[in-house]
Every structure is written in structure tokens, then in C-alpha cells.
Write a sequence for this structure.
């Protein structure tokens, strides 16, 4: 009995997060809530992303659905952009466990050099109902010191 109580307490604590800024109940007769997390990009610190995802308390696996919205909330410099991964797959900047069965929600930053835009892709690492759930938000560099103006020929 003690073993199960320790496991249950551990599962409850893994749901706690210092990045959580909101918690919306989905109703009186459900154990599912929409959790809202706020995350600042660790390299491009002028970008804040808000991720909404469904969490099922006392369940071994949370649903895979999530939504993301990222905005410029501070300065974005050329030095920040110079230090990010510019490959087509970008890099994972956030990760949150969604299950004890190795399912997680990740947020990946990808740089679109042609449009000078940062793309933030939120996605689940496990297939659900024949689909990998994902959501996309973009932050254009236009109006920041990181934006590179095309040189005109004279």
C-alpha cells in the first residue's frame, strides 16, 4: 500500500511546474485541466512562449494536444541569432514530460533565414490517433536589432 501511495505522490509532483501561469478546469466531472506554461527562450531571451496543454491528473499519460503562441517580449540581438542552431531541424528549447511511458511535449526553435523569422514548433513525441499532434508560432525579426537589411548596390 505504501508503495502505491509513494508512486501516486510522485506522479502528482511531476505535474507541478514553476513555469505554470494558468490552470483551467475542464469541468466538475473530469480530472483533466488545461495548463498554461510561460517559457522564455534560453538563448533568444527576448522571446516568450505560452503553451497550453491538457493534463489529466491521476492518469499515467496526458493527452498529446497542445497550442503555442510566441511573442517578442524583449530585445532580440544579432548576437543571439548568431548563436542559435540554424539547421533545418533547429533545436529543442523546451521539454515537458507527458507520461511515464516516454511521451513528452517538446518545443523546437527553427530559424527561417529567408524571411528572418524564428519558428517555434510544439509537438508530441508519441503518435496519437494516427497523428503526431503539433502547433506552430512565429516571431519575425522585423523591427529588432537582429534584422538584417538588404544592402543596395550603388
Amino acid at each position: 500500500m505504501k508503495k502505491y501511495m509513494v508512486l501516486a505522490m510522485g506522479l502528482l509532483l511531476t505535474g507541478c511546474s514553476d513555469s505554470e501561469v494558468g490552470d483551467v478546469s475542464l469541468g466538475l466531472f473530469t480530472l483533466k485541466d488545461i495548463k498554461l506554461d510561460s517559457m522564455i527562450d534560453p538563448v533568444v531571451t527576448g522571446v516568450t512562449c505560452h503553451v497550453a496543454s491538457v493534463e489529466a491528473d491521476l492518469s499515467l499519460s496526458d493527452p498529446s494536444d497542445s497550442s503555442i503562441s510566441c511573442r517578442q517580449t524583449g530585445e532580440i540581438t544579432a548576437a543571439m541569432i548568431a548563436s542559435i542552431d540554424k539547421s533545418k531541424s533547429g533545436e529543442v528549447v523546451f521539454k515537458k514530460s507527458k507520461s511515464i511511458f516516454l511521451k513528452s511535449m517538446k518545443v523546437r526553435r527553427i530559424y527561417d533565414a529567408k524571411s528572418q523569422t524564428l519558428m517555434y514548433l510544439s509537438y508530441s513525441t508519441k503518435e496519437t490517433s494516427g497523428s503526431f499532434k503539433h502547433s506552430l508560432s512565429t516571431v519575425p525579426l522585423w523591427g529588432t536589432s537582429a534584422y538584417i537589411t538588404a544592402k543596395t548596390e550603388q
Remarks:
- The chain has two helices and eight strands.
- The helical segments are 2-14, 78-82.
- Residues 2-140 form one domain.
- The mean pLDDT is 79.
